[in-house]
Amino acid sequence: MKVFVTGGTGFIGQEVLKQLFAAGHEVRALVRAGSENKLPIHPGLDLRRGDAVDPASLAGALAGCDATIHLVGIIREIPAKGITFEKLHVETTRNLLEAAQSQGVRRYLQMSANGTREDATTPYHQSKWQAEKLVRASQLDWTIFRPSLTFGAKGEFVHMLADLVRKLPVVPVFGDGQYRMSPVAVEDVAASFVAALAQPESIGQTYCCCGPASLSYDELLDAFGAALGKGKVLKLHQPLCLMKPLVNLLEAVPRFPITSGQLTMLLEGNVCDPKNWSETFGITPRDIKEDLRAIFAS
Questions:
Q1: What's the CATH number where 11 sits?
Q2: Does residue 142 lie within any of the structural domains?
Q3: Which is it for the CA torsion 128, 265, 214, 18, positive or negative?
Q4: Cα(first)–Cα(last) distance of the chain, in Å?
Q5: CB 3.0-4.6 Å disulfide test: which of 26, 49, 95, 153 passes with 44?
Q6: Cβ count near 81 (within 10 Å)
Q7: Domain of residue 42, residue span
Q8: Could you read off the pLDDT of 189-245 as tens digits, one per residue?
């Protein structure tokens, strides 16, 4: 199968490409000028220079492909640079759907996010919901995946928390640290995208992708501490009544580590029941505690 992929240079995208090649598929990857070196050299890789926000660059780009995998996404907006949820989540999805339909590519896989819903309160989840609505309204054979917080050896999430645990004698925590999450392995997320290409029963379905364990944020920090050989992590819980106004004040500063929307999503938690997803695609979700030990032992 020849698969058109957007977002292939990203954390999840690179794993999707790796598994597509391992399964014997050919890939035509859309890349912006200057990003070509982020992709592996592979005989099955065909580069197409362009940008999913620019419909003109998609003209003819999908011709001859059998499926489209749309992975473009951001977690933080930078409006001054034109980087917004509306543009990267909604407009790119509209552009890809129109290109797929006009160029005869019926199979379409979309990456959304766990927590996406009609009554979402954050701009991130609202934009993901708008993108999902566009996908569902299309005439394509679509499947939507909603990964939870995704981890892996090369992921920013793992390196960020590891740095906090390694370098700080006491790790600051927003609120009580009891909000829960079920991190999912990047390998498992990628495997489901690849498997869906050969599973027509997944057409018209939406799958939430989570790991097997539900951990509080405090428990997650302790898992990092154990994997790094530091034992239980000392934590300083910051009152939300003080932290929320501070985040609102400083979120526009690019170097400030969190936005008000990200804080809201953190406090909401990020869990789901992975049974339907894991059984459909024959995946036994990897446990983050076990994977962390392997990551830091290597």
A1: 3.40.50.720
A2: yes
A3: positive
A4: 34
A5: 26
A6: 8
A7: 2-150+184-210+271-285
A8: 999 999 999 999 999 999 999 999 999 999 999 999 999 999 899 999 999 999 999
